Amino acid sequence: MKKMMTKMALGAMALTLLAAPSVWAENIKVGAILAVTGPASFLGGPEARTLEMMTETINAKGGINGNKIDLIIKDSAGSPEKAVSFAKQLIDEEKVLAIIGPSSSGETMQIKQIAQDGKTPLLSCAAAEVIVNPVASFVFKTPQKDSDAVKMIYNELKTKGLANVAVLADNTGFGKAGAEQLAKIAPEFGIKIVENEVYDTKDSDLTAPVAKIKANKEVQAVINWSVAPAQSIVLKNIRQTGWTVPVFQSHGFGNIKFAQAAGAAAEGVIFPAGRLLIAADLPADHPQKALLLDYTKNYESKYQGELVSTFGGHAYDAMLMLEEAIKVGGNDREKVRTALEGLQKLPGTAGIFSMSATDHNGLTIDAFQMMTVKNGKFVAYPAQ
């Protein structure tokens, strides 16, 4: 009897040991809502590919704390309605630990409250400042601040002695938020917005708004605020009229495809962006350089023929931050949220992140570098 009980105890222990690894190695579900297809695929495509690449790398190393990532990507095609449906599905049905995305500001604003109510960390890849202002405890974003981009542009305008500007903005959430920041901050820099036009991202010809702002002889510079391919058409239409006015773009210009689409019209355009676009030119001791070069090399090797963009970089930062938070908080939404809020001096593609209870973006104006287009390439401004 005693021998039988001993065997049973040993058997039970063996079963426990066999079962334990499946508990210890529980996969961590991470959701992503991205515009992989559709008109905003220039955002969501690089983001999705970046997340897939990073997930492969993390899992190949054994995961995080021994737990592998189960990445669930939902293609919203840029639709706020789809983003809402997917957010509910990921939170309520898939029980994901966190959501990365959406790609656009409009989509993000539609699901911000859903993530907050569902107590699920949301790491948006969209730029509009309203995503994190006011702060919602479970909502974060990785792109730099709109207001800081505006200040960088206005500083350069002041340096050039230019005060009267025309603002062209697209009709996305990003365009609307940017136009609001441009108007709000203008008085602080002595800038006067003498023309203000909104254009549809679906338009293939924007000569009408360009003609209107050109007719105003007070205009000394143009600020084209967009995250869509249509911004390249604006540049073409401006230069096709023979107008040599200085043109500034927002940080939504940070994909070389936009410059390539505009061709010669993009030459000399000035814009603020993260240093990913000029990583090779950074000093050897720059705190971001190694990470930027590593991401660039890995991405461009894996997806041959495609150059990195700041948009893919936003997804990189989101997964990087989430990985660091999981190391501390495990597979617990609240603990991960707290860990995200506590991240300090973390180098990413967009800058050096330092979060707090009142700052869920964690970047300062120093995250930006003024850039320009020279011979079809992005270079630091002023070009040498």
- Give the second-level CATH assignment, the architecture of the largest domain: 3-Layer(aba) Sandwich
DSSP strand content? 15-25%
Query: How are the strands of the largest sheet arranged?
Result: 2-1-3-4-5
State the major sheet: 5 strands, parallel
Under CATH, the topology of the largest domain is which?
A: Rossmann fold
Overall mean confidence score, pLDDT? 94
Helix and strand composition category: alpha/beta
CATH H level, superfamily name of the largest domain? Response regulator
CATH domain class name of the largest domain: Alpha Beta
Overall outline: globular
The topology string of helices and strands comes to HEHEHEHEEHEHEHEHEHEHHHEEEE
Q: How many distinct folded domains?
A: 2
Radius of gyration: 23 Å
Measure the end-to-end span.
Answer: 89 Å
Q: What is the β-strand count?
A: 14
Q: Please tally the helical runs, counting DSSP H or I stretches of 4 or more residues.
A: 12
Low-confidence stretches: 1-24
Description:
It is a single chain. The model is unreliable at 1-24 (pLDDT under 50). The termini are far apart. The chain is built from twelve helices and 14 strands. The chain has 384 residues and is an alpha/beta fold. The strands form four sheets. Strands 2-1-3-4-5 form a five-stranded parallel β-sheet, with helices on both faces. A four-stranded parallel β-sheet has the order 7-6-8-9, with helices on both faces. Helices cover 45% and strands 17% of the residues. It has two domains: 24-143 and 293-353, Response regulator (Rossmann fold), CATH 3.40.50; 146-273 and 369-380, Response regulator (Rossmann fold). 47% of the residues are buried.
